[in-house]
Amino acid sequence: MAVKTYPGEEWLRGKQRATFEPDYGRRGKLWVHGAFEPATGQATILTSPGRDSASHIQLLEKVMSEFPADRWLFIEDNLVIHTSREVRLALASRPEIQIQFLPKYACWLNLIEPWWKQLKSLALKGRRFEDLEQLTQALYEGLAYWNSHRHPYVWKKRPQEQSPVLGGFGVQFRSNSLAT
After folding, report:
1. How far apart are CA 27 and CA 47, in angstroms?
2. What is residue 16's predicted lDDT score, i.e. its pLDDT?
3. CA nearest to 25, candidates 46, 2, 1
4. What is the DSSP secondary-structure string of 61-91?
5. CA-CA distances (angstroms) from residue 98 to 54, 66, 80, 105, 159?
6. DSSP 8-state symbol, 151
7. 3-state secondary structure (DSSP) of residue 140
8. Residue 168 has pLDDT above 50, yes or no
9. 2-175: CATH homologous superfamily?
10. pLDDT attached to residue 121
């Protein structure tokens, strides 16, 4: 997420007609790491200056404190920081954590992606931020609103029918055989 300002902040008056000086400058950026529990709809985020293994480990620790349990199953995509040496070493000392990776090229299986869209809409839509503190505050306010109105996530994606055009690779589903 980046903090940017857009044209129209100040009108400049002079001998000519009134104009404004566009300012597309970036005021800073931060990375938002998140976890989402589909059964309850509860979510958490962690903001950091970079997308690195240390931030991912901090997110895992935050999830363990906010979602108390005897065992945890994390379902993650194949982002490099999820499989880094530092993360593997941290997980080796935590046998109560199990990581399941999504298949590559199957982004529709990643249940946090629709939630990112919701958070973006709640926290950022139609707003302009002058600094990182305002952006961070808006993200945490959006998260608080989501968690106070949370609900279990119902996955609406259906398997797509595979076309026999390319030799029928994959599993073929008939639409009438799917449970509704």
Report:
1. 16
2. 64
3. 2
4. HHHHHHS--S-EEEEE---GGGS-HHHHHHH
5. 18, 17, 17, 22, 26
6. -
7. helix
8. no
9. Ribonuclease H-like superfamily/Ribonuclease H (3.30.420.10)
10. 93
